[in-house]
Specification:
The longest helix has 47 residues. It contains eight helices and no strands. The model has no long low-confidence stretch (mean pLDDT 89). With 211 residues, the protein is mainly alpha-helical. The protein has one domain. Helices cover 81% and strands 0% of the residues.
Length: 211
């Protein structure tokens, strides 16, 4: 029974794909989805992203398959998603948004489904394409990104009860917030690296002088 309920909650994402406004409204107000199903959407997106890196036909795969770092690959797929959720929640809290962080996370997770499906299709299609017809693979990827952007945008409109203009401004601020967080993260990592390097050099010098 629990699996049947979970499937019903997870598969509601297919309805949202074709009816985003009604779908996201019912997702929040009618509880048609769930947090556990949202987790599954995120996990599935990460799995497909890993498969896309490793299993895409070599003609369209520029990655070094032997240099596979699972933590880096999973991080590259998951980090942009969680940064979107955090940044969107921060700005919408300041701009009278009606959604909680949980609402933002669930709506954003369900918005991933078309992106995940299109990327999975792209993996399969890549094996039937040649260099001359390779534009179809690029087109599929482009459609997936645009579809994802629209779903995230519609999701925040409904979740926070924004007008189109306010939603657009918030989406742009969210993207800007993501860029700032990435910059600060890189800056923090660089500072930590410099500190570790300095301490290591200091210990080395002390050992040379006193040992």
């Amino acid at each position: 029974m629990k699996l049947k309920e979970l499937w019903k909650e997870w598969s509601y994402g297919f309805y949202i794909m074709t009816h985003p406004f009604d779908g996201f409204w019912d997702l929040k107000h009618e509880k048609r989805g769930s947090l556990r199903a949202a987790h599954l959407h995120v996990i599935l997106m990460v799995i497909v992203s890993v498969c896309q890196r490793q299993l895409t036909a070599f003609l369209f795969n520029q990655n070094d398959l032997l240099q596979f770092n699972p933590f880096a690959v999973v991080g590259n797929a998951f980090l942009p998603f969680i940064l979107w959720c955090v940044s969107n929640w921060c700005f919408t809290t300041l701009m009278d948004g009606e959604g909680t962080f949980k609402d933002v996370y669930i709506a954003s997770a369900y918005a991933l489904l078309p992106f995940t499906i299109i990327n999975a299709i792209a993996i399969v299609v890549s094996y039937g394409l040649t260099q001359e017809t390779g534009a179809l693979y690029t087109l599929l990827q482009g459609i997936g990104v645009v579809y994802l952007g629209l779903m995230l945008f519609f999701g925040q409109l409904v979740t926070h009860q924004y007008s189109f203009g306010k939603g657009l401004i918030t989406a742009l601020l969210t993207v800007a917030g993501i860029m700032v967080m990435i910059y600060l993260g890189l800056l923090f990592c660089r500072v930590i690296t410099n500190i570790v390097s300095f301490v290591s050099s200091l210990i080395y010098e002390l050992r040379i002088r006193f040992v």
